């Protein structure tokens, strides 16, 4: 076995020994994520929030044709939208009502987002009963496509005396392992990795884990029966987000949610990697599939994860105390997202999000620009802000995400060996991005809530800010500084 790849250094606090990998170097290949030329953004759905609208049971009856008055009202609304949509040759139909009360209308084909924005402006200008209308935009995983480097140990978890860019987790583990705190990973879903399955929360009904919130069967890669329009259902297993024509952002499947989940809560089981909160529980909420995911699906997934009602979906009996979203888009926070994140926060969930990978001010990206969230920037192994990381006043704190300052500057976590379809589940790989930084903070939040369950989302945020440390290298726009897990957990215990 090549010694360069043969060991994972883990503190004696957890395992009392050095953990040895279960396979040779070939099991840890260099990950190469292929980028694509930037194409015009398209979307197919419109979100419209009507003032003082009927909700949930009545809306379902209207769509089923058993509530004539509301059904007639929906037809009139569709006609109103289609008056403006006819200019670009599309027709809309009502699809469903969201957890926020807004309606989702779906066109018969995709169109430019600019055209949807124009329809939205016309609706708002001409109907005082519309609180807002906006495109149901696509959000995508925030990992950064890069060239491969050599593999390294989990520098991101180390004591800062060992690694300048580390998080001081060994001392935090003296106080908390995050036992039984539920962390929702709103992402591409999960793969049943042997380092994760012990910490995954079963799906409603007991088959698989978590829940799939992707409505579109093609996006979800799920076959539905004739007449069924939604792919939503129990089990958030990742079916792959690959495409064969570069029509989206990558060709191979990313298994992004599995990587994020491993950073949060890979088990301390004597092999592979270990997560920030190795005794926390992961609730997989699948919202990203082929070519990303709709805002409406993402926000309904966030609502369900927090324990809020979503029409047509069983009640979540294990509400998340922490919700991680390592996804985003290059635009301002929409009203739909703002309402959804604030509702989750008011329910008591700490919402942690990636600051974005565009190398610009985070106020220009979403969900980093949304209220009620904790946006996380990314630092490298030397403690400096990563070259790709968004920055600025909207950033709360910074955490390890990888920075490419050396061959070792990557984040190792659970993954899957499949290029497109699932392959070997006992597999590990490296990514960099604010997608990797956010779950480090979500894990620290779980450590804090395990030791002090009474903490509110605002208290968690304030502790993270107050206990963050000054960056040892250039980190302009990094919020309060680099997260210090030991200091944060200690403060949570005494709070």
Automatic annotation (TrEMBL):
<comment type="similarity">
    <text>Belongs to the peptidase S8 family.</text>
</comment>
<feature type="active site" description="Charge relay system">
    <location>
        <position position="256"/>
    </location>
</feature>
<dbReference type="Pfam" id="PF00082">
    <property type="entry name" value="Peptidase_S8"/>
</dbReference>
<dbReference type="GO" id="GO:0006508">
    <property type="term" value="P:proteolysis"/>
</dbReference>
<dbReference type="InterPro" id="IPR023828">
    <property type="entry name" value="Peptidase_S8_Ser-AS"/>
</dbReference>
<dbReference type="GO" id="GO:0004252">
    <property type="term" value="F:serine-type endopeptidase activity"/>
</dbReference>
<dbReference type="InterPro" id="IPR050131">
    <property type="entry name" value="Peptidase_S8_subtilisin-like"/>
</dbReference>
<keyword id="KW-0865">Zymogen</keyword>
<feature type="active site" description="Charge relay system">
    <location>
        <position position="435"/>
    </location>
</feature>
<feature type="domain" description="Peptidase S8/S53">
    <location>
        <begin position="178"/>
        <end position="472"/>
    </location>
</feature>
<keyword id="KW-0964">Secreted</keyword>
<keyword id="KW-0720">Serine protease</keyword>
<keyword id="KW-0645">Protease</keyword>
<dbReference type="InterPro" id="IPR000209">
    <property type="entry name" value="Peptidase_S8/S53_dom"/>
</dbReference>
<feature type="signal peptide">
    <location>
        <begin position="1"/>
        <end position="25"/>
    </location>
</feature>
<dbReference type="InterPro" id="IPR034176">
    <property type="entry name" value="Peptidases_S8_13"/>
</dbReference>
<feature type="active site" description="Charge relay system">
    <location>
        <position position="187"/>
    </location>
</feature>
<keyword id="KW-0732">Signal</keyword>
<dbReference type="InterPro" id="IPR036852">
    <property type="entry name" value="Peptidase_S8/S53_dom_sf"/>
</dbReference>
<dbReference type="GO" id="GO:0005576">
    <property type="term" value="C:extracellular region"/>
</dbReference>
<keyword id="KW-0378">Hydrolase</keyword>
<protein>
    <submittedName>
        <fullName>S8 family peptidase</fullName>
    </submittedName>
</protein>
<dbReference type="InterPro" id="IPR022398">
    <property type="entry name" value="Peptidase_S8_His-AS"/>
</dbReference>
<dbReference type="InterPro" id="IPR015500">
    <property type="entry name" value="Peptidase_S8_subtilisin-rel"/>
</dbReference>
């Amino acid at each position: 076995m090549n010694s360069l790849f043969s060991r994972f250094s883990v503190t004696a606090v957890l395992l009392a020994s050095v953990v040895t990998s279960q396979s040779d170097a070939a099991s840890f290949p260099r990950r190469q994520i292929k980028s694509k030329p930037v194409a015009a953004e398209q979307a197919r759905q419109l979100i419209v929030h009507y003032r003082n609208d009927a909700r949930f049971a009545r809306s379902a009856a209207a769509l089923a044709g058993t509530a004539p008055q509301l059904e007639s009202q929906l037809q009139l609304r569709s006609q109103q939208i289609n008056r403006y949509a006819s200019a670009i040759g599309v027709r809309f139909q009502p699809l469903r009502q969201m957890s926020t009360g807004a309606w989702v209308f779906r066109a018969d084909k995709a169109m430019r987002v600019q055209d949807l924005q124009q329809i939205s402006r016309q609706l708002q200008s001409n109907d005082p009963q519309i609180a807002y209308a906006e495109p149901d935009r696509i959000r995508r995983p925030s990992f950064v496509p890069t060239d491969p480097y050599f593999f390294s140990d989990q520098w991101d978890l180390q004591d800062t005396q060992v690694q300048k860019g580390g998080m001081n987790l060994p001392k935090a583990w003296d106080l908390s392992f995050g036992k039984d705190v539920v962390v929702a990973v709103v992402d591409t879903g999960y793969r049943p990795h042997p380092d994760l399955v012990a910490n995954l929360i079963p799906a409603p009904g007991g088959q698989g884990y978590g829940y799939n919130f992707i409505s579109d069967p093609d996006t979800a890669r799920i076959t539905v029966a004739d007449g069924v329009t939604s792919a939503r259902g129990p089990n958030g297993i990742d079916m792959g987000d690959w495409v064969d024509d570069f029509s989206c952002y990558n060709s191979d499947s990313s298994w992004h949610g599995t990587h994020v989940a491993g950073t949060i809560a890979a088990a301390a089981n004597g092999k592979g990697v270990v997560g920030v909160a190795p005794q926390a529980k992961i609730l997989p909420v699948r919202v990203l599939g082929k070519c990303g995911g709709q805002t409406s699906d993402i926000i309904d997934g966030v609502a369900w994860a927090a324990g809020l009602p979503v029409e047509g979906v069983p009640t979540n009996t294990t509400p998340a105390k922490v919700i991680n979203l390592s996804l985003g888009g290059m635009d301002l926070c929409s009203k739909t997202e703002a309402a959804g994140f604030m509702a989750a926060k008011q329910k008591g969930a700490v919402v942690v999000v990636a600051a974005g990978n565009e190398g610009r001010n985070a106020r220009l990206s979403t969900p980093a620009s949304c209220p009620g969230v904790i946006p996380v920037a990314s630092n490298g192994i030397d403690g400096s802000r990563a070259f790709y990381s968004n920055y600025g006043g909207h950033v709360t704190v910074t955490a390890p995400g990888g920075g490419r300052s050396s061959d070792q500057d990557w984040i190792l976590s659970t993954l899957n060996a499949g290029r497109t379809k699932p392959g070997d589940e006992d597999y590990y790989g490296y990514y960099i991005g604010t997608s990797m930084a956010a779950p480090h903070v979500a894990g620290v939040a779980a450590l804090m809530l395990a030791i002090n369950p009474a903490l509110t989302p605002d208290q968690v945020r304030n502790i993270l800010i107050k206990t963050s440390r000054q960056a040892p290298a250039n980190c302009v726009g990094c919020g309060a500084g680099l997260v210090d897990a030991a200091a944060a957990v200690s403060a949570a215990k005494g709070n």
